[in-house]
Every structure is written in structure tokens, then in C-alpha cells.
Amino acid sequence: MPDLAAYEPIAGPSVVSDLRELAKRLAGRRVLMVNSTRLGGGVAEILNRMVPLMREVGVDARWDVIEGTDPFYRVTKKFHNALHGKAEEIPPEMFETFLEVGRSNAQRIDLDVDIAFIHDPQPITLVEQRPKRPAVKWIWRCHIDVSRPIRTVWQFLEPFVKRFDAAIYSSPAFAQRMDMRQVLVAPSIDPLSEKNRELTPEEIDAVLARLGVPKDQPIITQVSRFDYLKDPIGVIEAFKRVRKSVKCRLVLAGGTASDDPEGEEVLAKVREQAKGHPEIHLLMLPADSHLEINALQRASAVVVQKSIREGFGLTVSEALWKARPVVASAVGGIPLQVKHGYSGLLVHTVEGAAHAIKQLLNNPAYAKRLGENGREHVRQNFLLTRHLMDYLLLFLALDYQTETIRLNGV
Ligand code: UDP
Known about the structure:
By secondary structure, this protein is an alpha/beta fold. Helices cover 45% and strands 14% of the residues.
């Protein structure tokens, strides 16, 4: 992992010195991150970079992952879908499974910390173990849009959420109206990670050759877990429409996350749709294929993210950072990243996606401008350094709250 100084030329020197200054006040603070997978998906992607950077500035951060069972991941996937508003049948014993796995993880994970940072619903029940000391803070970091959930699931989770000192959302539109401290912190990408660092043309070519993707035609790419909510079938339909008038290739690159039990089923449907179309490349990549994804995004004429529902949608910032023109659905956190007609094109349908892709393929100068604007937008708003700054500021704000409680004797 590069040290903080390496971010100066990208994020600016004042950002780095401000981070060091702020972090001095948090030196040695024990912070625990807990989520549900070490590999696969945006949360793991961020924690992989955030935890070492916190440590570098002197915060005693560590990262633990809850251990689940297959039935547990089936429940949490249903929760995930239901929080995104998809109707799901969840019998009472599934809620029981969820609580049981939470309890056994509470026995195993060392929760003796100053700040516990719990990501998403999977580990949320750990909050039952929080100590009563006011100086200890518990934060719920919600990466998904819970503004229009299926009621039963939200009603089950809400009492847990309320036990935290603060809830963090990626966008104001994602939150529920609740009587607690709610904070907005957008996610981020690490510009120096293997996924996002600059690559030479030779490095890109070598990856394409290894993955069997010829460069003879413009490449359209979507990088996503094979998940219904990422709509890979919709991407194929849009691509087939584009292919009628413009020669191009489609790359669907993805894997399945260890906490996602639906991946295989979705992949089978995608294979069916892609059958007989040699210009569609389905790439099942191991979860640590950061260089491969980097190269694929950089080699693409257009990067697509045609999600039906989305959390933040980190893949969009990843593509924009590479100055790629993006066509993406106007869902979740995507409109924070893509300003229509400025840093990409927002779409709502398969037809809209096909039209936007064609527009970009036929107008490279426009595509280039959108990509360049997108890179600057990411530089200003979605880099890891800004994200770390937001977390440090939140920790200090929570300290201030404790101090106020102490002084007022409440
Ligand atoms: N990703 C990956 N391999 C894959 C699919 C996705 O490394 O096969 C990465 C992708 O580059 C991004 C993250 O996983 O960094 C996905 O984050 P996003 O917010 O787009 O979606 P999520 O999977 O969290 O819903």
C-alpha cells in the first residue's frame, strides 16, 4: 500500500497535511470495521484500502468479517433485495437464523474497541453487545438505499439501527427519517490501487490477450457481480440493439461474492442469452482480479452500469477515474457520479441504454469530453483521501458529543 504522501500529487498537498493534522487527535484510537465479506463487492473493495490508510495516519484500525452459513447468506441476500424494495418471502425461521449467526459472531469477534463501525445489515445485531460507556461509539455504515424498503424487513432492522450513535448513508436520498444522528459520507475509490492505477498500453494489451478479448472492434464493458439488480440481461439486450448498426464487442466481467448465493443462477441465464454471440465475452474473474478489471475498463470505448437498483455503484467512479465515457442507470448513487450530459449519460431503459451507447460510439469527441469531466468529478469528490477525512471528522464529532454529555452531566 502506498503511503499517504503518494496521494499528494493526485488529491493535493493540503488534503494530505489536513489528514495528518486531524489524525493526530485520534492517535491510537481503536477502530473496528465489521462487514460480511473480505472479497467481492464495493464494501470489501473500500475496506481493503481504508483500513491500511487509517493505520498509516495512526488510528489503530482493524477489520473483521462475520462468519456466516449458507442459510444466513440466503437471508441476508433476501434482506438486501427487500431493502432495495423487492418483495421477498421471508419466513420467521429465517429471521431466527439471522439472529443466531449474529449471536455466535458476537462471541467470536473482539468487540473491545473505542469505535465499532458496522457495515450494512449482515453484522448489525452485534450492536446488542455494545458496552454502556458513553466514550465508546458504535456507527452503522449503510451502503444501500433503504429509503423505500419492504416494511417487514425494515421494521425488524430498525430497533438495531437505533442503538447506534450514528448512521452513515452514501446519499441523502438513501436514508429513513429517524430520530438519531444521520450522516452523509459518499464512498470512494483508491486511485493508487491495482484496480485504478495508471497502466501502460502494453499492460492493457497483455491483459486483453490473456482474457481472449480482441481489440479489433470497440469494446463495451460492464463490471459487476452476476446479480439480477445489476441487470446483465438488460445489458445484453441493449448490446444486441447497438450491434445492429455499429460493430462492437461486449464484455461482461464479474464474479460472485462469497456472501451472494444467487450468482450461479444469474450467470446461467446470462450464458443462455449470450449463446451464439461470439462477440459477447463473459469473463468469470477470480475476486482478486484488480489488474484485469483495471485493464478492461481502460480498454473500453464505453463502460456501462445498467443496474436496476444500486448502492453507490463504485464501478462508475472506477470507470470515470479512467476518463471513460459511462452509460449508467439513474438509480442509487449513480446520479451523484454521472451528471447527465456532463460526466456521462444516464438512462432508464434498455432502449435508452442502446441509444446512449450508439451516441458515444458514433461521437468520439463527445465521449472523450464526458470521460474527462468524469475524471475531474471523481478527483474532487470520490477519492479515498476525502473519504478518510470524512470518517476522521465524524470520529471527532462523536468525541465532541461525549465531551458535551460529560460537561452537562447528562
Ligand atoms: N468487482 C470485482 N470483481 C467482479 C465484480 C466487481 O472486483 O467480478 C468490484 C468492482 O470493480 C467494484 C466492486 O467490486 O470495485 C463493486 O462495487 P459496486 O459498488 O459497483 O457494487 P456492489 O457489488 O457493491 O453492489
